[in-house]
Design goal:
The complex is a heterodimer of chains A (210) and B (333).
Chain A: E1 3-4, H1 5-21, H2 23-33, H3 38-55, H4 61-75, H5 80-93, E2 100-101, H6 103-121, H7 131-146, H8 151-168, H9 192-207
Antiparallel strand pairs in A: 1-2
Chain B: H1 11-22, E1 27-31, E2 34-38, E3 48-55, E4 72-78, H2 84-94, E5 100-105, H3 108-123, E6 128-133, H4 153-166, H5 171-184, E7 185-191, E8 211-214, E9 225-228, H6 232-246, E10 254-261, H7 267-284, E11 287-294, E12 304-311, H8 314-321, E13 324-325, E14 330-331
Parallel strand pairs in B: 3-4, 3-5, 5-6, 10-11
Antiparallel strand pairs in B: 1-2, 2-4, 7-8, 7-12, 8-9, 10-12, 13-14
Classes of the chains: A mainly alpha (210), B alpha/beta (333).
Chain lengths: 210, 333
């Protein structure tokens, strides 16, 4: 089972709903250790990306991912705009000609997106950022693929790993982003970026290989 | 939440409409993407100064667009950095053939969006330099954080670098002057109350009736220490000592001082606080050459204030005194 362009469009539409529903929760997490805008930024950005894709359906996965990247960079703002934008943009560059993505291509796309996020934001695992959810998700994709799994099982493993990664941020002291200004006071809070990334992977599990 | 707004999602664009209506002779406003330019932009042969950041800090940055200060400002959503397409379009709109200086407050979002914008500008052949403002002494351990935040010194830097650009100095000179202003400036802020982001609808943090937050940034983010309120004299002493000890400022240093309101502090109290500072400065042998007292870099309706000190020489004072004609700062000429 490969990932089609239509799967990507459904994934983004599902994310627009998810971030819309979770807007207050994400903003609450951000208010505790940041500046209380993550929920509204993600909801606004993914609603715009959904509208863009549905208004003029893209022909390939790469075209879809690139369009999402450009819309997110323009509409999200904050640190999340360039970071999530870079994630989708780098993912798009790995599969310019593909009409659908097999397991190897899916892994390659999400791994490239994750590397892009790390380069732009200069964060490592343990800094209490979205990277704490993304990196384990990509590791899970890779292990799962190596074990011979197809996209549906790969994404299920990635979503579980992202959720564990999100939970791992709770006791951490932030070293990147606005939460880092709080020092010790950033402990005992979930990172909003890792939380929105876990939601991104959960929606991928539910829609990207459906 | 009680606010003078229509719908939370329209706050920024409707405020821009108001700025355009209030200053039709001075400012031009673009809505898609959002940026403000001086009415006579682009000014041929002049280095263009472009800044921006989240909305909610007015008059920063839009109120400082005009002759002698910024050529363009890019407002983001409230407390959210502007996006790369805004900054790129604004830079292109005001480029007068001598390149542009991006003035960025050191917040992760602003830095990432401006860096992406600078990549876009350079890909189009525009010359862009950037200066990062990181003057907030409340951030102690900058090695393990995103670094010191950019706060009050931004206002003084935009004025001084703006004057240098207006005099026709080239990009390298204006950029290096701007970096020197950042190196010589230090700030510290505090809050009596939180503020409410319109889209969030409730205060960003809660402070008890007798609690204050020391070492805040400008986004309603919690600060360095939560403690109990104390008399203005003690507050100013504690904050000034932190600022003075950091550069460090020494006896005989000449400074420009800014006693800045966070948006909800009466001018009566700001003057009272400045009086306390002036007394302390005289005691320490600081020569306050110029000052600003009022709301210049705010945090919506937050009650609180910040103190910024900039060590200056003759050249900086002269540039400070050059004419400026913006909605938020205006003298000479």
């Amino acid at each position: 089972m490969a990932v089609t362009t239509g799967n990507i469009v459904s994934w983004i539409a599902a994310l627009a709903s998810t971030y819309g529903e979770q807007q207050s929760y994400l903003t609450e997490l951000d208010a505790a250790i940041g500046d209380a805008d993550h929920g509204s930024n993600m909801a606004r950005g993914f609603a715009a990306a959904r509208d863009d894709l549905q208004g003029d359906p893209p022909e390939t996965p790469a075209a879809a991912l690139k369009r999402v990247a450009m819309v997110l960079m323009k509409t999200v703002g904050g640190a999340s705009g360039p970071l999530y934008g870079t994630f989708f943009l780098k993912a798009a560059t790995t599969c310019p000609q593909a009409n659908e993505l097999n397991g190897d291509q899916l892994l390659e796309a999400l791994a490239a997106g994750t590397e892009g996020v790390q380069q732009r934001g200069k964060a490592e695992v343990g800094d209490k950022t979205m990277v704490d959810a993304l990196v384990p998700a990509v590791e899970a994709l890779r292990e799962s693929r190596t074990a011979g799994e197809e996209p549906a099982a790969m994404l299920a493993a990635a979503a579980t790993a992202a959720e564990a990664g999100r939970d791992s941020t709770y006791p951490l002291v932030a070293r990147k982003g606005r939460a880092s200004y709080l020092g010790e006071r950033s402990r005992d809070h979930l990172d909003p970026g890792a939380t929105s990334t876990a939601l991104l992977l959960a929606a991928a599990r539910d829609h990207l290989a459906a | 939440m009680k606010k003078a707004i229509n719908r939370p999602e329209d706050v920024v664009v409707e405020a821009l409409r108001g700025m355009e209506a209030a200053h039709p002779d001075r400012l031009r406003v673009s809505y898609e993407p959002k940026f403000i330019t001086r009415a006579d932009a682009p000014v041929r042969g002049k280095v263009a100064l472009v800044s921006g950041g989240g909305s909610g800090h007015e008059p920063l940055h839009g109120g400082f667009v005009g002759p002698g200060m910024l050529d363009a400002a890019c407002p983001g959503e409230v407390f959210t950095s502007p996006t790369p397409d805004q900054v790129e379009a604004a830079t292109r709109a005001v480029d007068g053939g001598q390149g542009a200086l991006h003035i960025i407050k050191n917040y992760t979002g602003d830095v990432l969006n401006f860096e992406t914008a600078a990549d876009l500008c350079r890909a189009e052949g525009l010359e862009v330099e950037a200066v990062l403002v990181n003057d907030d002494v409340a951030v102690e351990d900058s090695l393990f954080t995103a670094g010191r935040r950019g706060v009050g010194t931004t206002v003084l830097l935009e004025k001084i670098a703006g004057a240098a650009a207006e005099r026709g100095q080239d990009l390298a000179t204006v950029a290096s002057l701007a970096r020197r202003v950042n190196e010589e400036g230090r700030s510290f802020g505090m809050a009596f109350t939180s503020c409410t982001v319109p889209s969030a609808g409730k205060p960003t943090f809660d402070l008890g009736p007798d609690e204050i937050e020391l070492g805040i940034g400008i986004h309603g983010e919690p600060g360095r220490e939560r403690t109990t309120n104390r008399p203005a004299r003690e507050l100013v002493e504690q904050m000034a000592e932190t600022v003075l000890g950091d550069l460090p400022f020494a006896k005989g240093d000449r400074v420009i001082a800014m006693l800045n309101g966070m948006g909800g502090t009466p001018l009566l109290e700001l003057y009272l606080l400045y009086g306390e500072f002036a007394r302390l400065a005289a005691d320490r042998g600081l020569l306050v050459e110029r000052n600003l007292v009022g709301d210049y870099i705010t945090s919506l309706e937050m009650q609180g204030f910040s103190l910024t000190l900039l060590r200056v020489d003759d050249a900086m004072v002269e540039l400070w005194d050059d004419p400026v004609l913006t909605p938020g700062l205006r003298w000479g000429g």
